[in-house]
Automatic annotation (TrEMBL):
Gene3D superfamilies: FAD/NAD(P)-binding domain, Glucose Oxidase, domain 3. Pfam families: GMC_oxred_C (PF05199), GMC_oxred_N (PF00732). It comes from Bradyrhizobium quebecense. This is Choline dehydrogenase. InterPro entries: FAD/NAD-bd_sf, GMC_OxRdtase, GMC_OxRdtase_N, GMC_OxRtase_C. Belongs to the GMC oxidoreductase family. Signal peptide: none annotated.
């Protein structure tokens, strides 16, 4: 007998956890959640310092590759994506950023009623339990714990001193009235431990809510349709093919790569393209997989003998061993670090309305996402482009549901993106060249020979890659031929099928995407409940 629930949620990432957790608060509403990974409730996930074990490997990570990137000299990029409960919130750098108010007002101006900043702020606040900040911009008592770092790393103060010397403003709260400036990031942690979306919305209720069923190691392979109505999901668990049926809706929360992939595998997408893989069209929706946007990112790296950085050296290993002991005793110290402890938002031109670059200052020297370890300790500083003009896409490599999708972020596909990054490179260098930050540097590992704008363009194309914020592949819109969902997140032209994750973003927000994706899940649950009440 096939199991039937009111809602079947595909994917337990940031959006899926939030929508499933909220919908299952009503004991009369049954919710099943499918995720291809595990429970993600062990020390590797909960210890912030273990991020490098996951980010650089296939541990709780899909570890996708891109197609060769023309704008990056034909290089293949890396796209880590969380696998298991919590999705990417279980492997990310835990930075709590919402984006700029203008991002959401822009969504609303495109015809997405209900998505202005004033509309979404209550959902950010509802999700949040901020231990340090309150007032009109922050929430208390929500499932997502947000707090300051407990790494006790004095380099944070050095960074702030460098920001002052470079004459950048200092910002205490990037999610308040203004975003521009540099400072220390708040993180999704509690008592020095990672607080993923699963930890906030799912783990506390597993086994306690009879109306909530969580299936792990369960990879969705197809949405089942009767006519134009989604009625269930087929999935593989081990070697067994199984089905869950949905009375009310199937909710797709598989992320910016796998939500469009599952739609296409199920016959929803560009009919001609699907036909080439032998997939019969259920609904011709050419926007599925289009409009991929991501933040291209460049990393400065410096070796340093200052005793504050992690890395492969005898002193670095000793610091980690000592830090593990401190973490076990106090839940403080280097093992609580999210690595990207400082950063902020800057304008490359003073006349801009909103910041167009973001910095992440890291307490380790990171090369190729940590996949190329170097002997020695040091630090790095990322600079990313917040609103790229380039647009990419996701498509099927094959009709095999267990195969990875083809991913093309099209980094630096537009020359304007390169030029803004040249300006961002120079601003970041201005910060790194301050006396405060110079004192930490032994050797400039990557940019010592960069002098001219052409040198900068060259190294940007040679070394840039993602900073892990893909969105937009099932974009929200009305009267738009490439829109996939409406402002209620319902898939155009189909019934009982909704998308609730970062893929619905029509444009990329100016910041890290985890908190906004949780907001999308919160808002979706509210919209669904309103429809249920209306009958």
């Amino acid at each position: 007998m096939t199991d039937t629930f009111d809602f079947v949620v595909v994917g337990a990432g940031s959006g899926g956890c939030a929508v499933a957790g909220r919908l299952s608060e009503d004991p009369a509403t049954s919710v099943a959640v499918l995720d291809a990974g595990g429970k993600n409730d062990n020390w590797v996930v909960t210890t912030p310092g273990a991020i490098i074990l996951m980010l650089s490997s296939k541990l709780n990570n899909w570890a996708f590759d891109t197609v060769p990137q023309k704008g990056l000299n034909g290089r293949i990029g890396y796209q880590p994506r969380g696998k298991g409960l919590g999705g990417s919130s279980a492997i990310n750098a835990m930075v709590y950023i919402r984006g700029h108010r203008a991002d959401y007002d822009h969504w609303a101006s495109l015809g997405n009623t209900g998505w202005s900043y004033a509309d979404v702020l209550p959902y950010f606040k509802r999700s949040e339990n901020n231990t340090e900040l309150d007032g009109e911009y922050h929430g208390k008592g929500g499932p997502l714990n947000v707090t300051g770092l407990q790494s006790d790393n004095p380099v944070k103060e050095t960074f702030l001193q460098g920001a002052r010397e470079a004459q950048f403003r200092i910002r205490d709260d990037f999610n308040g009235a203004e975003q521009e400036g540099l400072g220390i990031y708040q993180v999704t942690q509690r008592n020095g431990e990672r607080w993923s979306a699963a930890r906030g919305y799912i783990h506390p209720h597993m086994g306690r809510r009879p109306n909530l069923r969580i299936e792990t190691q369960a990879q969705a392979t197809r949405i089942i349709f009767e006519g134009k109505r989604a009625v269930g999901v087929e999935y593989m668990q081990g070697k067994e093919k199984k089905v869950l049926r949905a009375r009310r809706e199937v909710i797709l929360s598989a992320g910016a790569f796998q939500s469009p992939q599952l739609l296409m595998l199920s016959g929803v997408g560009d009919a001609a393209a699907l036909g080439k893989h032998g997939i019969a069209s259920v609904h011709d929706l050419p926007g599925v997989g289009q409009n991929l946007q991501d933040h291209p990112d460049f990393v400065f790296g410096f070796s340093s003998d200052a005793p504050y950085f992690s890395g492969l050296s005898w002193s670095g290993i000793g610091r980690i061993i000592k830090g593990i002991g401190q973490y076990r005793r106090e839940r403080r110290g280097p093992m609580t670090s999210n690595v990207a402890e400082c950063g902020g938002f800057l304008k490359t031109r003073p006349e801009l309305d909103v910041p167009d670059i973001q910095l992440h200052f890291c307490m380790a020297m990171v090369e190729d996402h940590g996949r190329k370890p170097r002997w020695g300790t040091g630090f790095s500083c990322h600079v990313c482009l917040l609103r790229p003009a380039s647009r990419g896409s996701v498509w099927l490599n094959s009709a095999d549901p267990l195969a990875a999708p083809a991913i093309d972020p099209n980094f630096f596909g537009e020359d304007s993106d390169v030029e803004t990054m040249v300006a961002g490179f120079k601003m970041t260098k201005r910060l790194l060249d301050t006396p405060a930050l110079r004192t930490l540097q032994q050797k400039d590992m990557f940019t010592s020979d960069v002098r001219t704008d052409d040198d900068i363009r060259s190294i940007l194309r040679a070394r840039s890659d993602t900073v892990y914020h893909p969105v937009g592949t099932c974009r929200m819109g009305t009267g738009d031929p490439l829109a996939v969902v409406d402002p209620k997140l319902r898939v155009h032209g189909l019934e009982a099928l909704r998308v609730v994750d970062a893929s619905i973003m029509p444009t990329l927000i100016g910041g890290n995407t985890n908190a906004p994706t949780i907001m999308i899940g919160e808002k979706a649950a509210d919209m669904i409940r309103a429809e249920m009440r209306a009958g």
